[in-house]
Amino acid sequence: MASTLSAKSIPLARPKNGVGAFVFQCRKLVFSYCEHFGSNNGMVCVSFHSVRVFRFKDRNENSPVLWLSFVSDLVKFAKKNPQIEIVVQHRPAHHPIVKGFYREIFVPRPTDLHRLNGRDKVICVRNLSPSEIGDKVKLLRDSSGAKTKLLAKKPVLSTTESVRGIWSPFHSRRHKI
Amino acid sequence: MLRRTFALPPLARLTPPPLPCTATNLTSLALLHTTHPWQERRSRKQVLAAIGAKEPTPALVALGARLGLPFNPELLRQIVTHHSFVGEVEEPNNRRLEYLGKRVLSLYVSEYVHIKYPFLPKENFSQVLAGYIGNATLANLGREVGMQHVVRWTEPTRIVHDPERTLTIACSQTAAEDQLTQSAVVGKAMASLIGALYRERGPESAKRFVHMHILSRELNVRDLIEIHNPKRYLTWLMRRQNRKEPESRLLSETGRTSVSPVFVVGVFSGEEKLGEVCLLVLDMMTYLFLTFIVCTEIHQVSAPR
Fold this sequence. Notes:
A: 177 residues; Glutaredoxin; B: Ribonuclease iii, N-terminal Endonuclease Domain, Chain A; 2 domains; 43% helix; disordered C terminus
């Protein structure tokens, strides 16, 4: 029955995320690190193929206890957010970055939703401590993928531009000079 | 420096380190050095090949969690495997699941539309159905949930148009429009997902999924309806429902002799008012008014058990 219809006669069913089910917008997080560059000290990620050599007497941030705590934090994060695919990528001779990939949305232009279509966000986490990196990761996870918008200038978003309504001559006093 | 090769997992994954990091012995730490990581970096082809690997990819598991599906990874892999996919081993594909899923979708969406729009003309019914469960919509839905990153299929080789051999091409190969596209594969994977849900968890689960993901989408039904003889249609509708013949009555008016009069006309079936409309000219029965009756929405949708 549906196959006999032409493509133009089929109406468009617009997606309404959250009306029925909510599809989480952040689909993938990529952690890129380099084990030699010093800025990566916070982004401590013990990968399966290299381990940094350090001395037992080191009591600074590069200690293994902190490393293991970050790894377990990342594992905990991954378990708590099973809908996000987490990739740990080795990227030598670069600052560490966290990259978030967001889902695609199919609505015809021009609407606000079209801006979210398949975007990605990158945050460079050089010289940040593990807890600060955690904050940035949460920021990426909670984002919708839209470009960061300044919300301070227009605090009210409404179908009517003014809160008290648009002026009408029928609902006000007669103009007096 | 001692070198040691590890058997690497297919894709980068956060696994526990092979040796304890709290080792104090420097020599044991030196043993951990392997080949330099940049030599082991995988190209895109290698990554794509890994998608055909035995274990399900993290993206696939994440997809299952995103949709709230209680499937094991093997079933998820079957759902996203198109029958055109050629792997090392004979893999189960989603063809049968897709067949089942399409019919399950058709059932639950038809049921919903039938109850929500009881007076919808039959041509519009098929249009609305296509709008909810057509190939384009399923493909869009699949892309929105991230299916395009996990589907396993084989892209067909492009047909090169040769004017001298047009006839032979038409006979031996399919037309360009029928060629398999990623959108089509993604749509089929979505249908097979619903089929799998129906098979594993039963009709209630499948129905809930269809209502949450597909019927929650917004579709403007009013714009589809074209009634050429609205008065005639309304008369037929009332007769069919054994109600009194419709007649229009003037409810109120203002400015009849002025430049811009306003008349409020109501259509009644006996004592019951079917609807009213504001008219600028007294004799005009507007088209919008009738589609308003025809598309009466029942807000509490109660489907048959």
